[in-house]
Structures are given as structure tokens and as C-alpha cells.
Amino acid sequence: MSLHQIPNTLELDSFWMPFTANRQFKAAPRLFASAEGMHYTTVDGRKVIDGSAGLWCVNAGHGRRQIAAAVERQLMNLDFAPSFQMGHPLAFDFAARLAEIAPDGLDRIFFTNSGSESVDTALKIALAYQRAAGQPTRTRLIGRERGYHGVGFGGMSVGGMVNNRRAFATHLPGVDHIRHTHDLARNAFAKDLPAHGAELADDIERLVALHGAETIAAVIVEPVPGSTAVLPPPQGYLQRLRQLSDKHGILLILDEVITGFGRLGTPFAGQYFGVTPDLMTTAKGITNGTVPCGAVFASRKVHDALMTGPQGQIELFHGYTYSAHPVACAAGLATLDIYKDEGLLTRGATLAEYWRDALHQLKRLPNLIDIRNVGLMGAVELSPRQDAVGARGYEVMVDCFNHGLYLRQSGDSLALSPPLIVERSHIDERSHIDEIVSILGDAIKRVA
Ligand SMILES: Cc1ncc(COP(=O)(O)O)c(C=O)c1O
Fold this sequence. Notes:
By secondary structure, the protein is an alpha/beta fold. The chain contains 16 helices and 15 strands.
């Protein structure tokens, strides 16, 4: 277990690390020093293939010179400009370019700095919309079990990951959750979208019956939950959720912080599933993970309902100092150029089958209870050890790191989402995809 771990010579105490077992990590740190293309290099000089695009964000791979150059130029030209009653051209260019690739009609863009901020912004816009549309009693927000929508009070409240909620007693009032769709008994090892579970979307009817549709503003789900280790939606599920939301006058928010920007082989997951939400939240891949940035995409219906009243009236009392930060806009525009020039927003479609087949080769390994995949997302789930949920998953993650693969662990599941530049085949060398799968398979065998 201690292979390749560096001596603990750094001063590690001051940095209180997020979503990390601080004491365990600091006793045996895993530190990256640089990155290029598909690989990280650790502080002790080892190459580690990036199986998770950083944190699902480095979609165009690491070390992109074009983004670095755009950021440097922007810093020297206009390092900061306010977006409150002032503006700068790049913000408008960036929004227009995002609107070009947006799902049908979602062409009004509100900038934030992160996925959490995008989620809280979308929830607030949903509430403001209902009030503006003459339905002020619609204040209830619906999330889903096993959902992850960031860490703001809004996102935490609609989220459904128990550990993210437990320590913080205060949630938003008037929030409820529909059931999750993870069903190992019926869908384990599905190679395509799970065949069973579309009816789980009907759970929204249960909440309508319980609370009254006239109290519900919006429902928010991830098209494919990522942080709970890749849970592809059952066939027909999202379409049904869309129909039922429409039926009851409830806005549908798709949280595409992970699935946005090409992860499934289409620019956004809504396009993959043929479902257009009223609001869509994004971040991460919007700047290839280089500069913090997020965006909420709103439909004309939602946007225009708020563009009323006297001309001089601020329509939405919401925004961040760094909304549409010039450096983020510059990084984002350069990122969109790369995505376009290299066809990365659709490249996943050409690799999805190879990816799926490579992952499913792991099927017979010990303690493996599920393999999931959609687009260029994937996960394997291991059975938990008795009285030690997550221990096996953690050991596999550390073993992978020690043998040259970085991936994300969630409980006893290991999630993968490589940069979209990942190669299927190399001359003389193992392909990236084969390398990722083989290191993971060996780790599972070793840890068993
Ligand atoms: C679906 C989803 N929403 C929101 C977030 C929060 O994003 P951030 O960490 O940028 O606040 C994440 C982060 O992983 C996410 O996966």
C-alpha cells in the first residue's frame, strides 16, 4: 500500500482539504506536480494516466497552450471588469458561443463560478420565474435521492447523498426528493441504458399528490448522476420526467455540471436523451477546468417571463462579483475553439462502444457486482466488506494511483470519465482505454 508514496516532508497541516480524509491523506499524501495531455506526473516523477479528467472537468486534456495564451493575454489586457451595470465584450461573445451549442432554445446564459453556484442560481431563477408567472405558491423544490448538486444550501438540500447532508442540520424548507434509479437487482451489468425503471419517474406524481402541484416550483436531476458513481437513467425515464413536469407546470432543471461539454458524445446530455429542460446548469468543462466558471442556460420562456416591468428595473437581484470574469470568459472561448476544432463535443460517440466493451471485460473479477457505462462515463461497483463500507473501494483507488491510474472513488464504486482526447489505439503501445481498464482490473484483483 505504501508503494511510491512520498516521504511526508511538506508542511501539510494548514491546508484543510475539501472532501478528503485529511488525517489519513496527510499521513500518506498523493501529490501531482504537473500534467500534459492524458497524464499527470506526481511529485516523485511517476506518470499517472488521468481516468477522471481531473474532477470530470479537463475534457480537452491537460496543458492546452491555446487556453494558457488566451488567459495570459486577457490578464494583461483587461484583468477584471464588473458585470453589475457594466460589461465587457468577451462576456457577450462567450454567452453567444455557448448559446450556439445549447440544447434547443436554452440560449439565455447566466454566468457563475462553479457548479454549486450554477445550481443555487438555477433554483433561485426557478422560484423567481414562478412568481413572475403568477404562481407565487410554487416554492417547493424537488431533488432526487443519490443526487449531487454541489454544496451550497440549495444544492445540498435538493441533493440526496446522505453524508453530504448529515452533519448540517439546516436545509432549505419545502424540499422533497423522488426516488433514485439505482437498481442492481434488475439492471446490473447493463451494457446499454438500464431496461428497468422508467416508472420511477412517476414518483413525481406521488409528491404532487402529497404536496399539491401548485406548491412545486421545479425538479432538478442530473441526467446521469456522476458523483454517486455513474448511474445511467433507465430507458425512457428522463422523457417521462419531462412529460410529467410539463403536465404539472413544474420546471425541469437538468444539472449538467458533469455531463455537459461532450461527456456523452453530444454537447449536452439533454441532446443525447432527446430531453430539453427549462434550465440547465453547467461548470467544469466550460473552461476545461482551468479557470473557475459556470453557467446556467435558461429557456426563453423562463428568461422572458422575468424581463418585465420598467426598463430601469433590475430584473434578477442575483449575481456574483466574478460572474463573467474576463479571464474565465477568455479561457472559456479558447476552450470552445478547441472543442470545435478537434470535434471533442461529439468524439465520445465514436469511442463509446470501445469504452463499453473494454469496461465489461472486467465482469468476472472478484467482488465485482456491477459495471455501468454511458458515453465516455463508466463505473465499476464492488461489494462492500462487512462493517467496512467504502474500504474496498478506497484500497482499489490507492492501488490504482500507485500503479499509474487516477480515478474517483465513491463508496465501493470507482468512477471513470477520461479526457475526451483519450485514444482507443496506439501504435506500439497499449491504448489509453486499455491501459486504464487493465490497471483498474489488476488493482481489483490485488485488493480483492
Ligand atoms: C452534477 C453536479 N452538480 C454540481 C456540482 C458542484 O460543482 P462545484 O464543485 O464546481 O461547485 C457537481 C460537482 O461535481 C456535480 O457533479
